[in-house]
């Protein structure tokens, strides 16, 4: 009998709910029809009365249906217009982008206070529904370890420069980072530009140069590291000067839902879109290498070929230079190593490993990435970070470290090549003028952007003053070299000098090992004639305008140039 009564009650409840759903469906039928019109922008769902009402009734949670529509699409197809779909009520509503809302009316534009625009420094404002940030189930800040397209939320982004709105659009927003996802600090984000949100790319010519365009992904990187700021862009500038491949960056002041988060760094996202922008295609084998052994992430390409390369590279037997050059871009590897040795990041083994699958003769190469632990010991806070031995960070579980040490052990040619590259880089690329100019550049950004604690600037300045001497000593030990010595070159002020193949001026000073002689070429100006050299007060007349000299002690080389004497024609009587 009790079972019979429960059955009748259940039937009654089902009938009642059905009637209510029919009534609600009729009530919201006009609204559904309006939402299917292009004149109703999707922004209304999050920030206008219609969307608020639907959400309060628990009938609407609009998210990009990335998993269904994008799962099997290649990167070049990701930005075509697709539908959004409504998850909770399962009503298939056709939504459209932001074509009818001017950029200055987007929430990310209107939320910025006039006082914040009085500072001319670039400003990025992002506005997102707080539910999409903090909801325990769907919020990206509440679930920072969640990844992928299903954890991308619709938002708005505006970019201001010199107090003027330059660009604004709807975007998709995700959490970005590795261990920083769980750190007690403001998170980094990724912005995705897709037609379902608004613009398909960031406005060209605004933040990066043409090599990075079109910009379809963008990282908003929190560069604050315990009172160390703007480390990544400074380290990237140094790595690029050395000749390594680096992403482009742009420091900005970042606001989230109107609240200042700090100084962030806009950074190229190393993805398939990056490959397409820089190389014109995405047919690469692409592996995100990580610091911890066994955590590298295969992305795209030929996995078997990657595994075969890694197995070969991480063996322990010595290698010749020719063996490595057959498979690896050795110049790229060497310049990556030099950038790591100088900047001394304590989590060095990062950055994509790539192979161009369209070229049958392609060689493996790397892109520098995530150098924000540079110029400091992030983990132990040593008093003199410029004394760090980064040779120890090149560990054998990673192909870069393994190949480097196998070459040192097995190839005299590589030892000579790398020592010469080291000397030329330290003497002619990483000059004190360059290093201190870059540091002054980022110090001024720190001042302009409102960074108060700038003690790290002085520590970095000392790092630049001492690091090269420490590296010379470490090179001497690792490569079994003799001591290094200073060599100064002088000439008349209007005489052009070419030293080691680099254009230099009188007063140049570099440091050399005995196995890396200095090569000086003097180019006299018009009306001048080269006379001779003076080396450590000794006249040398046995060579011409080019001299190659082994530096076995502190040395001064002087090029002596004389003015040509004009001869007058004498008249015959």
From TrEMBL:
<dbReference type="InterPro" id="IPR014867">
    <property type="entry name" value="Spore_coat_CotH_CotH2/3/7"/>
</dbReference>
<protein>
    <recommendedName>
        <fullName>CotH protein</fullName>
    </recommendedName>
</protein>
<dbReference type="Pfam" id="PF08757">
    <property type="entry name" value="CotH"/>
</dbReference>
């Amino acid at each position: 009998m009790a079972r019979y009564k429960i059955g009748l009650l259940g039937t009654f409840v089902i009938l009642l709910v059905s009637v209510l759903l029919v009534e609600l469906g009729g009530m919201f039928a006009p609204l559904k029809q309006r939402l299917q019109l292009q004149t109703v922008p999707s922004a209304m769902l999050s920030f206008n009365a219609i969307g608020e009402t639907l959400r309060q009734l628990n009938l609407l949670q609009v998210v990009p249906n990335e998993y269904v529509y994008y799962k099997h699409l290649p990167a070049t197809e990701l930005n075509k217009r697709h539908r959004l779909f409504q998850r909770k009520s399962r009503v298939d509503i056709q939504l459209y982008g932001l074509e009818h809302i001017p950029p200055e009316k987007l929430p990310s534009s209107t939320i910025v206070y006039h006082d914040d625009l009085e500072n001319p420094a670039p400003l990025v404002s992002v506005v997102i529904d707080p539910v999409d940030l903090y909801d325990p189930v769907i919020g990206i800040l509440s679930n920072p370890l969640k990844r992928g397209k299903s954890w991308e939320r619709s938002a708005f982004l505006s970019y201001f420069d010199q107090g003027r709105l330059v660009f604004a659009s709807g975007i998709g927003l995700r959490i970005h980072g590795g261990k920083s996802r769980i750190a007690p600090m403001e998170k980094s984000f990724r912005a995705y530009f897709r037609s379902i949100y608004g613009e398909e790319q960031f406005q060209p010519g605004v933040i990066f140069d043409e090599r990075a365009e079109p910009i379809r992904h963008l990282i908003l990187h929190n560069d604050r590291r315990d009172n160390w700021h703007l480390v990544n862009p400074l380290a990237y500038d140094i790595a690029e000067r050395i000749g390594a491949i680096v992403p482009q960056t742009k420091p900005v002041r970042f606001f989230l839902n109107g609240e200042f988060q700090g100084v962030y760094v806009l950074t190229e996202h190393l993805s398939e879109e990056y490959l397409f922008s820089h190389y014109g295609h995405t047919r690469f084998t692409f592996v995100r290498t990580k610091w911890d052994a066994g955590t590298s992430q295969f992305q795209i390409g030929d996995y078997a070929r990657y595994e075969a390369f890694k197995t070969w590279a991480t063996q322990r037997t010595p290698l010749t230079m020719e063996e490595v050059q057959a498979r690896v871009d050795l110049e790229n590897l060497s310049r990556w190593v030099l950038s790591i040795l100088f900047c001394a990041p304590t989590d060095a083994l990062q950055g994509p490993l790539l192979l161009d699958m369209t070229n049958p003769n392609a060689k493996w190469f790397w892109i520098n990435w995530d150098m924000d632990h540079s110029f400091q010991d992030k983990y132990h806070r040593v008093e003199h970070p410029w004394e760090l031995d980064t040779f120890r960070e090149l560990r054998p579980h990673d192909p870069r470290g393994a190949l480097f040490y196998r070459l040192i052990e097995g190839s005299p040619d590589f030892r000579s090549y790398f020592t010469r590259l080291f000397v030329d880089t330290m003497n002619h690329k990483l000059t004190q003028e360059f290093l201190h100019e870059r540091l002054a550049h980022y110090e001024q950004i720190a001042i302009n952007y409102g960074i108060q604690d700038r003690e790290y600037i002085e520590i970095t300045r000392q790092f630049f003053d001492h690091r090269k001497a420490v590296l010379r000593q470490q090179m001497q030990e690792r490569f079994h070299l003799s001591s290094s010595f200073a060599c100064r070159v002088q000439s008349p002020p209007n005489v052009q000098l070419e030293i080691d193949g680099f254009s230099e001026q009188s007063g140049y000073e570099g440091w050399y090992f005995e196995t890396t002689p200095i090569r000086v070429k003097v180019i006299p100006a018009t009306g001048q004639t080269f006379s001779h050299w003076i080396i450590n007060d000794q006249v040398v007349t046995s060579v011409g305008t080019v001299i190659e000299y082994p530096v076995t002690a502190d040395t001064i080389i002087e090029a002596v140039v004389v003015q040509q004497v004009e001869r007058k024609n004498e008249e015959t009587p």
